[in-house]
Amino acid sequence: MHMITDQLLVGNIDDAQQPPAVVGTLLLVAEELVVTPAPWMDYRHIPFREFAKADPAKLMEAVQWLELRPPTERKLVCCRAGMGRSVSVVMAYLCCVEGKSYDEVLKLVMTRHPGAMPLPNLQVAIEQVRQLRRSRSSPQASV
After folding, report:
1. What DSSP string runs through 51-101?
2. Cβ(90)–Cβ(4) under 8 Å?
3. pTM of the model
């Protein structure tokens, strides 16, 4: 398990099956796996295909779900190995919710989790999610 920020961690399937007590939220993003979370765990499964290009619709869903969790709660995002899909979702969250640049987030993630491998096309998908979020929040979107 790797702590990317104070509130965002990435992990593998073993971490998802036995998360530490300091984690209150678990997002599983592995399409091929399921877990039975602890009864006290705030849990969601949003399936991403392994080694596939980043899917903007699923990234948007994951980012929105994480964003709705309490900001002080520790969130654990897991996939099979904890290197690609989980890392990509955390990167999208940091870019789209916290407003950080892709390059800044990539540097942070690679420092905190050497060996991380973001999904193909992630930077483009994150930009698409940013545009969707902007269009939904603009006053003209509701006219």
Report:
1. TSPP-HHHHHHHHHHHHTS-TTSEEEEE-SSSSSHHHHHHHHHHHHTS---
2. yes
3. 0.94
CB 9 within 8 A of CB 27: no
All domains in the chain, ordered by first residue: 2-142 (3.90.190.10)
Residue tagged 């390059």 (tokens): 103
Give pLDDT tens digits for 14-50: 999 999 999 999 999 999 999 999 888 999 999 999 9
Cβ-in-10-Å burial (0-12, 13-18, 19+) of 5 comes to middle
Inter-residue contact 129 to 96 (CB < 8 Å) = yes
What are 67-87's pLDDT values in tens digits?
999 999 999 999 999 999 999
